[in-house]
Amino acid sequence: xxxxxxxxxxxxxxxxxxALSSVLRQTLQPSSVIVVNDxxxxxxxxxxxxFTALNPIFQKLNIISSHLHMPGSKVVNAFKNGLDQLxxxxxxxxxxxxxxxxxxxxxxxxxxxFNNYPNVGIAGGFAYxxxxxxxxxxxxxxxxxxxxxxxxxxxxxxxLAMGGLRNAMGWDTVDELLAKFHGFDIHTxxxxxxxxxxxxxxxxxxxxxxxxGKAMYTMRYGxxxxxxxxxxxxxxxxxxxxxxxxxxxxxxAKKEKAPFLVTEKEGDFIRALRWKNIKGKLLG
Length: 284
Hints:
Helix content is about 40%, strand content about 20%. The chain is of the alpha/beta class. The chain folds into two domains: about 5-195, Alpha-Beta Complex (Spore Coat Polysaccharide Biosynthesis Protein SpsA, Chain A); about 205-280, no CATH class. Strands 1, 2, 3, 4, 5, 6, 7, 8 and 9 form a nine-stranded mixed β-sheet that branches. Helix 7 packs across helix 9 and helix 8 packs antiparallel against helix 9. It starts with a strand and ends with a helix. Residues about 200-205 have low confidence and may be disordered.
């Protein structure tokens, strides 16, 4: 299968070389790798230039945006800019972070998944992060059928059906909900162990703490599902404040009448799916 990769990169001089090297080692090579230099003021652009000189599959795109590292909008905006520059056909498209190391057979296995399971629309592995002792341990706070936004592969038909990525916090949840809305499945492969070099959210601006609740509002969760999801999140992370932040973000978005990310019909489907999952877990 043919595939292309888009990598948003903002001040990634520490990790970018390792990430791009892991792409070069793939047993199934991409047709194109567009690295979007998003307003970096470190050596990110120089590293991209080294790889564009090394192999013609690499392309550089410079864009100007805010220096604030906010989840969602900044990275999706960079991705969309890269997508606009894509000039080759693809069977699946990949959104990749600049701080990860892929196993060498990662995309060969992703291609096999898409080939062997025609109904799969989104596929990926699992993230591993180093603990204090240097051991790589799986870090996956979401359900086992969720693919982290740092390394998501989308079959072209699914990507087009859901209208691409939403430019907001929560994009890597709403994409999977919309994929299911359009009849596609999510597939995760436990053998695909991706090394995540920087813990999630470490570089985010402090203002980001309210965006999770806002995302739940804009995905039309409603208050009860938002409360349950936020309580579950707070319990997993042992942080009561995250529950309060989520609710504050939810009601703040409701008060300002923030635009929804999904239509009413999609929202009905999402709530029904969420309630089904909640009831399923309660009943064991």
